[in-house]
User: Fold these one by one.
Assistant:
Number 1:
Amino acid sequence: MTRHKVAVAQMDSGPHKEINIQKMEGMIQEASQQGASLVAFPETSIVMPGTGEDREMESEKIPGPSIARLADAAKEGKIWVHCGSLPETIDGDTRSYNTSVVISPQGDIAGIYRKIHLFDVKVEGGPSVMESVSYAPGKDVVTVETDIGKLGLAICYDLRFPELFRMLTVMGAQILVIPACFTSDTGNEHWEPLLKARAIENQCYVLAPAQIGLKPRYRAHGKSLVVDPWGTVTSCKADGEGIILSEVDMDRVQSIRNSVPCLKNRRPEVYGWNM
């Protein structure tokens, strides 16, 4: 079977884990009941970090209590769950990793990705965000084999670094999952074009679950999307919390790669890149 229904969740996560996790459990159940094989959540889905004063309470080990709750929901719904991201405790470091966890329908952890590119920006007259104060960067490029297709994992600001997505594609990714809490300032102009670009250039599906609402330092853009390998938006949630559904078809991925063979026509020996 090459076709599968997938769900992408849009959330307005706040600082209270219990409220957020209850929302996620409900969305997992809904996605399962709607026949989805996978549901993906946005960045900082489990907890939206605040001022940093309660950092130790926000962060947790993986596996930990939040992932255990979502694993139970995945197992009950018999559905793959991409949990968005949460702050992961680092032994001996006051910072955390911004970490995505993929859970199988059996309730097992199938993949862990730690955000590689940290959003450090000071915009004159605009927002100032320094993720490196609170987060440490990940070092591993991660794909996850599922019975839907191979997932390539990234988080939010990673979207602006096309080399990461080319590496994921060379590693076999067919579906790129990009949970985000994009700012409204940049999201209005950049969010959808960047997602389409990553889909088109890598001939992959893109699942982009997003945060909405006013966050501690900026307003989140929202507009969760599913984009197919041709660059067509197949599903979009313009506003509000909830899930959207779409179909992914691995035969379509292969058909597009055959008809426009840009991945086969690469010249890595010229680029000085061994992938």
Number 2:
Amino acid sequence: MNVSLSDEYLSKQKLLILAPHADDEAFGCAGTIAKIKNAGGKVYVMVLTVGDLDHYNSEYGHVSGSTRAKEFDDVANYLKIDDYEIVFHDTEKHMRLDSMPRRDLIHIIEKSSKLALDRISPTMVAIPAISYNQDHVAVFYAGFTACRAHDPSVKSYPQTVLAYDNPTLSWNVDHDKFRPNFYIDISNYLDNKIKALSLHKTQLRHSPHHLSIENMEYLARVRGHEISVEAAEGYMCYRFIL
């Protein structure tokens, strides 16, 4: 069997994705998840919160937290994610992570949750890019701090730290906040990404909305064309150690 260098590298990785909400893991990383799993690596997803929410949408106006959790469970099973958790299952915290003291959020990510860095020692961590969404900003800064370097003889830390893409990033006061410099070719896994997104059906919108399946395929192909492949997922790399 012909194994590429990238597959050999990915087969040794243990990726932890920090998702502010159920669906962020699929919008940003579903193709990467499928590629790492196919290569033999491990993937874990920590969703910080799900809860009831009213949408500006006639088809799914009110969406319950239990519905969001079930959709995420279906995605996790479809992508064969090794383990996953939802930290907060309550509407009071949903879309209000920015109201939590950052130190408390760091403690959850670093130490106390089932998939905390101290418990699973991931080699790679993917955090949400900074956007207008206050929960994404809160998880970015808490995750970034939790991934800080340490004396490896005392405490392990991830060798690769990435911020992942999101279709809402075009509405940003500072467009330089997300400039991809790390790409994963998902040409063979675009169908997996589209299928995973389709399972988050209450979060999708009809084309030409930026949260439509059509737009997500366009975005994956644009990221791919930036590196001359059929489809890719783009990341900002904050640390990469070999």
Number 3:
Amino acid sequence: MKEKIDLLFTLNEGYLQPLKVALLSIHHNNPHQTFRVWLIHESIPEQELGALSSFLIDLGHELQPVTVDGSIWTNAPTVARYPKEMYFRLLAGEILPTHLTKVLYLDPDILVINSLTELWETPIDDAMFAAARHTGLLDVSTPLNKVRLDLEHGYYNSGVLLMNLTMMREKVRWEDISATIEKYDAQLFLPDQDILNYLYGKYTVEVPEERWNYDARMYTSYLARSLRKHDIHWVMEHTSILHFCGRPKPWDPRNDTRFTALYLSYSNLLNQ
């Protein structure tokens, strides 16, 4: 019997449908693996949580919802695209049960198209996170973010994080997060991601974005950067997590990328 993998999502009611699509893709492409899904939220109705739990039980997995008081984030930068639920992952070590030593956090706007086992087994005993950087063809964002946030390391994407909860409990403090919000305020363009990089980027080990956090908008860049090695056949064989960063999302009719049809195929399965 394989070790159960603990997954973490932090979201509000508006992202329950994309969450189900993500979970269905995880199930289909990890057929011999069981998952325990931790959902940190503030106000998702019990009826919706019950429906989600039944959905996961039917797939052979389990749901562990955790309700939190989000009032401490009242002064943190939020917009419709970045609700306060995005911050909850920063305090996962404090919120989740102490018997958990690690968890794999995923944004809900993802598809999993291959196994997650290798990522789950990535050694992080001496790191707080394993994460990828979205560097692009010319990697113009890294120098800008280093200057903007005074970083001495790369800028990591927070949409996929293997979390060392033991180290998070040792080092993550609300006081530090609050001070960072107060210090940078309007400069927090991607608020929780900026905070994570500023405070904890130095405790992060890098994993390849092409495999574990593939930006679905950037197929042409990946192809060029790999000298045409990472074509669509390579992606379907080697990439595990497609991340639909930015706008429009793949469930929006305006979205039309190389991977939109793949996303919609999983979405359509939910209605069968």
Number 4:
Amino acid sequence: MSQNNPVVIRLNGIGMEWDNRLVLDNVSLNVRQGDFVAITGPNGGGKTTLLRIILRLLKPTSGSVDYFDPSGRGTDRLPIGYLPQKNSIDSRFPVTVTDVVASGLLGIKGIGKAEQSERISEMIGLVGLTAHARHAIGKLSGGQLQRALLGRALISKPDVLVLDEPLSYVDKHFEHQIYDIMRSLSGKTTILLVSHEMSTIASMANRHLIVDRQLHECTAANHMVHCDCNG
């Protein structure tokens, strides 16, 4: 991805503490339009905390997060689709797969009812849940619920897609389908993806970050990730 592409998200000296424990330390990062950023690191290293700060779901102890529109002007909001690491949906809640996927269109303006219905149907098909469209989420397996939540993240066709461990719970067949979806979005959508399974993702991403309290940017060569950072 060209360094001339405009910055869409900028982190400035982010620090985060939990219970007097330093989780993130002086993290700065520019994410450019069309970047595919693969993020890895040890458990407890701060990956999910970093994503939640980027999404402004958490306020950092220090530093700031800035968003920019395509013209480079600061903005308070970005069109972001988000798949969290752990779903926050109570399986006892009486909603269907269709309800979950459709909720990704809430607050999106300029989409008529016909287009909404078409998008919902297409997205449910894309994530392989057509036969389960009317099923209550309490009847889904963990992998099926993960697919429904991925559909929710994708349906608005966001400018920025944030995925925290999208391969959790899904079987190998759908794992490869996720790879195909990522390839189709790569270059058009800005993607930030956290995963422990980096072998295939590393070959698609143009940037590789290791988060272990601090942020280290690494280089990719021959589909392997190399990091010369000392920490």
